[in-house]
């Protein structure tokens, strides 16, 4: 039996969010070893992990934005739109500012040391370059694309804040949101839940990605905004839909098969000579891989994790955002320190993964005990009781609301 708790707490989405952030940390360790551009690279190249990285790449961040959209919908059931926007701004913008001024600069410093041969101290770099608000100048006439200061991996926080403000503004018209929720249920009923979003994401990949490749710079990042804004909106509008979540669970096996098949064919097509037909096929396959694996994860997650709670889930739910804030700096610092050691790749990678886990855990243990540090890492400084109903749900009878939150059915293997 599957249930949506009456308080809006979705344990399955909590677990999926925790797992997705954990995969993100492993993905960023993997970036040290594949031939793709990254802030710091290992001396080793591990071609064998590239297919695994490609398997994660289409859906790892889209899934996080979708879960964030659902969380925003549940929060707006309790908060008035203005209070919600204010609370989320404090929760996101304080860590962003602190991260850009304190957490991210070591990443940029080690990047310019290794990529451009910078020989100054960290203090000199911070004062003369990091706060300069222009592209880094190595002093040898070489032009770089490293704009300082930067938010690096914290771009996710910026985008999430923007989308949060948009749905907060939309919540000023609760009737519009209710109509959009009902419309989404109709449009994506049955197998269309797999096909229509996959085609939309493929169209983004086909039409926008070639002209607007990912920059994470906010203002010129139209492919990423189309992708992440769309999945955030889906999570927001589908969060409380019994019909859509019933279909997500029912279609989890077909979604898994289609997603894995699309990924396998995409690997084969990737090795073929480039042509317009090949590029079209790649982007179509990418959309189905991306969306169907998201649906499969949501469906299996709902079945396997929806009723699992305990101290581990509660601990990690709080820990995951501080972990995210510090993890990439820890990874890059460890990679820099270990690079001259000559360790085998497997031992170096293991040390970086273990060291990152320890560094993140120690940071969280300190932060959660120090009141003034908590808001700088996205933790609540104090618990405030939120109003139980907002304008988004004021027109909905409580009995109907409870029925919409009670998703019943069976998860069969």
Q: Helices, strands, pairings?
A:
Layout (H helix, E strand, L loop, with lengths): L10 H20 L19 H7 L3 H17 L4 H23 L1 H12 L5 H9 L3 E2 L11 E2 L6 H16 L3 H14 L4 H16 L14 H17 L3 H9 L1 H19 L5 H30 L5 H28 L6 H23 L30 H8 L8
Antiparallel strand pairs: 1-2
Q: Kindly state the mean pLDDT as a whole number? A: 91
Domain count: the total is 1
Helix/strand structural class: mainly alpha
What is the tally of beta strands?
Answer: 2
Distance between the termini: 13 Å
Nearest-angstrom radius of gyration? 22 Å
Please state the overall shape, judged from the principal axes of the Cα atoms.
Answer: globular
Helix percent band: 55-70%
Largest sheet geometry = 2 strands, antiparallel
Instruction: Determine the strand fraction and express it as a percent band.
Output: under 5%
* H/E element order: HHHHHHEEHHHHHHHHHH
Number of helical segments with 4 or more residues: 16
Order of strands across the widest beta sheet?
1-2
Task: Return residue spans where pLDDT drops below 50 for at least 5 consecutive residues.
Answer: 383-388, 394-409
């Amino acid at each position: 039996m599957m249930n949506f708790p009456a308080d809006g707490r979705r344990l399955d989405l909590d677990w999926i969010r925790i797992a997705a952030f954990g995969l993100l940390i492993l993905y960023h360790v993997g970036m040290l070893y594949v031939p793709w551009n990254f802030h710091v690279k290992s001396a080793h190249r591990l071609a064998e992990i590239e297919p695994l990285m490609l398997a994660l790449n289409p859906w790892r961040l889209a899934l996080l934005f979708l879960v964030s959209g659902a969380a925003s919908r549940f929060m707006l059931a309790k908060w008035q739109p203005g209070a919600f926007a204010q609370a989320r701004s404090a929760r996101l913008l304080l860590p962003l500012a602190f991260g850009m001024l304190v957490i991210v600069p070591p990443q940029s410093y080690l990047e310019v040391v290794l990529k451009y041969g910078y020989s100054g101290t960290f203090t000199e770099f911070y004062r003369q370059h990091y706060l300069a608000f222009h592209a880094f100048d190595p002093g040898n006439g070489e032009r770089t694309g490293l704009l300082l200061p930067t938010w690096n991996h914290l771009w996710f926080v910026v985008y999430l804040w923007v989308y949060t403000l948009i749905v907060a503004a939309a919540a000023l018209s609760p009737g519009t949101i209710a109509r959009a929720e009902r419309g989404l249920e109709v449009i994506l009923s049955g197998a269309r839940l797999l096909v229509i979003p996959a085609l939309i994401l493929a169209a983004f990949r086909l039409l926008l990605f070639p002209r607007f490749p990912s920059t994470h710079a906010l203002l010129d990042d139209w492919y990423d905004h189309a992708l992440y804004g769309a999945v955030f909106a889906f999570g927001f509008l589908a969060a409380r839909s019994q019909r859509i979540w019933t279909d997500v669970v029912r279609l989890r096996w077909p979604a898994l098969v289609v997603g894995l098949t699309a990924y396998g064919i995409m690997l084969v097509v990737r090795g073929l000579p480039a042509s317009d037909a090949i590029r079209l096929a790649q982007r179509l396959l990418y959309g189905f891989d991306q969306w169907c694996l998201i649906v499969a994860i949501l469906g299996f997650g709902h079945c396997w994790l929806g009723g699992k709670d305990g101290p581990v889930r509660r601990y990690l739910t709080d820990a995951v955002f501080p972990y995210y804030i510090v993890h990439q700096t820890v990874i890059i610092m460890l990679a820099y320190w270990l690079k001259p050691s000559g360790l085998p790749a497997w031992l170096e990678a293991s040390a970086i993964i273990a060291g990152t886990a320890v560094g993140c855990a120690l940071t969280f243990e300190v932060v959660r005990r120090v009141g003034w540090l908590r808001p700088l890492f996205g933790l609540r400084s104090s618990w405030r009781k939120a109003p139980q109903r907002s304008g988004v749900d004021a027109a909905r009878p409580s009995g109907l609301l409870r029925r919409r939150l009670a998703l019943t059915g069976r998860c069969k293997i």
